[in-house]
Amino acid sequence: MTETIAGRAAPAEPAEVANSAPAWRPLARRAVVLLVLAAVLLLVVLASVAIGARLLPLSTVWEALSHLTQSDGGDWDVVHSRIPRTVAALLAGACLGLAGTGMQGVARNPLADPGLLGVNAGAALAVIVAVVFFGASTVSGYIWFAFLGAALAAVVVYAVASLGREGATPVKLALAGAALTAGLTSLLNALLITNQDALTSFRNWQVGSLAGRDWDQVLSVLPFMVLGMVILLGTGRVLNGLALGDDLARGLGQNPALGRALAGFGVVLLCGSATALVGPIGFIGLIVPHLLRALIGTDYRWLLPYSVLTAPIVLLAADVVGRVVLLPGEVPAGIISVLIGAPVFIYLVRNRRAVTL
Hints:
Layout: E1 4-5, E2 8-9, H1 14-20, H2 25-50, H3 58-66, H4 74-107, H5 119-134, H6 139-161, H7 170-194, H8 196-202, H9 215-233, H10 236-243, H11 246-251, H12 256-278, H13 284-296, H14 300-324, H15 333-350
Antiparallel strand pairs: 1-2
C-alpha cells in the first residue's frame, strides 16, 4: 500500500509510473510504422518507374517527370508508359488490401481473402462472360459484370459454409472458397479456350497482370474504387464491434446485420473494380492484415487505413520482381503474389496463434 506523509500520498512507486507509460507507446509505434511504410512505398514507386526491360537511372526518371510537356525522347516515353502501370498497381493494391482486411473483420475469419474465398474468381468469370457473350471490350463495359460476379461468389461461399451446426467456421469458409475458386477458374479457362480472341486479349489478365494498363482503364474504375474505399474506411468502429460478437455489438448500439451489409458492399466494389483493372490477384488481402496486426495491433480503425498504404507496396514489389526475374520476358504480378502468399497461408493454417483476430 502507498504510505502517506502529512495526509498526502507518497510519491508514486516506479511500477505505478511505468503503468502510465504504455499509453503513449501504441501511438508512437503507429507513427514510426507510418513513416517507414511511406518511405518504402516511395521507394517501390520509384523502382516501378525505373526498373523494367530497360533500366533507367533515377535522375532520368526525375527529369522526365519534371518536364511533362516534353513529347519526344525514348526515356520520356518509357517513363510515361510505366506511370499508368504504377498508378494501377497503387490503386489495385490498396483495394485488395483494404478488401481483405474488411473481409476478415466481417467474417471474423483470419483466413479471409478475396482470392481465397472465390470473390476474385467470381468477378473474373463474370468479366470473361461479358467479353465472350456480350461483346464487352473495355473496362467500363464489363466492370458491372465484375461487381455482380464478386457479389454472387461471396454469397455462395458464405451460404455453403453456413450449412451444418457450427455455421461458417474459418475452415469451412476456406474450403468452400477454395472449391468455388477451382470451379469458377475451370469455367473461365474453358471459355477462354473456346474463344481465341478472348484468349489472346486476356491470357495475362486471367492470372493477374499490370502490363499494358493505361489511363483510360484506370479512370474507368477510379470512381468505384474511391467509393468502396470511403465506405470500408468508415466501418472501423463497426468491425471492432463485430470482433466482440454480435451480442456485444448490439450492446454497444450497433446493428451487426447492417454493418456486415455495408462492409460487404464496400468489399464487392473494391474486389470488382480491382479485378476488372488488373485481373484476379490473390493473397494480397491475406498477407497485409496479419502483417499489420503484428505491427500496430488489432484495432480496425487503424488496420483499414494502414492497409491502404501497405498493400500497394506488396503488389508493386511483386510487379517489379516479375519484370526482371525472367528477362527479356515478364512474369505477371499475380504469379509472384502467389509465390509469396502461399507459404504465408500454409503458416497461418498450421499456426493457431497467428490467426487470432
